[in-house]
Amino acid sequence: MPDQTTVHLLRHGEVHNPQGVLYGRMPGYHLSDRGREMAEVVADAIADRDVTHLRVSPLERAQETAAPLARVFGLDMTTDDRVIESGNWFEGKQFGAGDHALRKPSSWLKLWNPLRPSWGEPFKEVAARMLAAVYDARDVARGHEAVIVSHQLPIWITRLAVERRSFLHDPRKRQCSLCSLTSLHFDGDTLTSLSYSEPAGHLIPARDKAAPFSAGNAPEEHRP
Predict the structure, then answer these.
(1) Does residue 222 sit within a domain?
(2) Is the distance from CB of 13 to CB of 31 less than 8 angstroms?
(3) Which domain, by its residues, includes 157?
(4) What pairs with residue 130 in β-bridges?
């Protein structure tokens, strides 16, 4: 029989971001105390799973989320640039109540095409790089399980791609909370099902239950 393999896409935990910056790929953004707790909760929740491979975005928040998993499973972290956050024109701009970047007319010119999207890395490119990493992780962990620690938008776009759904979506309705697991189940090379869980759901602040960013499909990686 073909090998049964599962690749879990784990979103990182809460980030310390008091200035409300959409940090994207910017360095220097680390997990908050609650984010570190989330990472520990996830590691404990899946400690009995057959995880044999750990692949991680190079950004600090993903590396820190993966650290408890590496310890629990005795694995080295494989850093993979293909699972990094998506590129975004709004990176570095503030989205706090007093200085919201979308109120500036200069920003509106970037919002003309929510399907591509016009303000950042094309969704098709995000899906292609993420799926390539998923398939490599599946092959390395064949017959077992792998965890890929990534970011909300890349994980959600991957899900839309494998479910053959439109990339056009409302970011407030993404099913991809902090430290959630979007799990892809394979029979041999064939994807047979997808499941979703929130091991650290009880730690998610009420303000993060829905994405406050309203610019179409832009990443919401700006929360404190």
Answers:
(1) no
(2) yes
(3) 4-208
(4) none
